[in-house]
Amino acid sequence: MKKIVLITLCFTLWAMQGSLAQSDKDIPAAVSAAFSEKYPGKKVADWDYIAGNNAYEAEFRMNDKKMEAYFADNGTWISTKTLVKIEEFPAAVFQAMTTGEYKDWTFHDYAILDTPGGMRYNMIAKNGNNTHNVIYNDAGLLVEKAVVKSK
Asked: Are 108 and 127 in contact (CB under 8 A)?
């Protein structure tokens, strides 16, 4: 009886693995090709579709960092997000965070965004019950802010 349960479990796990691998087949060829062109030789750990943004997200590692590249369904590259430590932000961004509109807020979840418009520096800012997603450019100019809804 134990052998039957073990064999059934093995076949179930094998079938599940196959179905996960097939999800890569759902990625449009233009998206897959665009990723390979932008990041030659890199292997995607996981593909996701972000419905709210109409974008495909490719999770991968490069230079020992976790990265997420975003592509439109026609293969157009949208941006690449790299999770970093605050020390990797330019001095101008750090200065803006500590002296500007958000100087009394606390920050976490730092990321560098490589976009067609240039590098952006993204983080979550929190002050009491208020939480904002904020993005600065290289010069420390606040280019985008959005209220983060509570879950």
From this structure: no
